[in-house]
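User: Show me a protein chain along with its predicted structure.
Assistant: Here is one chain, sequence first, then C-alpha cells.
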Amino acid sequence: MGLFRSHDDKQNGEKISWSVPFPPDLLARLRGFSAVSISKASGMYLEDVFEILKGSRSRTSPEVIEMLENVLKKLEEDDQRLEKEAAKINFMIKGFDVLEQKKQKRQLNRLPETGYYLEE
C-alpha cells in the first residue's frame, strides 16, 4: 500500500527539487559583467555561468538565484569602488599635467643668463 505513508517517510525519503525561472532583470544585470568575474566571485563553474548568460539554462533553484543576486551586489559595489578610484587617478593626472605646463611656461619665459641681449 503505497498510498498511505507515515509522516517520517515523507521527510526522510524525498527532497523537493525546486526549479524556478531566472528573473529577467537579474539576467540582464549579470550580462553587464564578464563570465570570468561572475565565476570567480560565485565559485560556479565557468561553463555553467556561460550557460546562464546565454540563456540556455532557463530554470534553477532559489538558492542559486539568491547566490547570484549576492554576487551581483558584490560585483556592482566593486565596480563603483573602481570607478571612484579611476576618477581620483584621473584628477591627479590632470593636476600633474597642469603643474608640468606651468613649469614649462616658466622656463620659456626666462631670459638666458648669457647671450645676445646681455652683450655690452
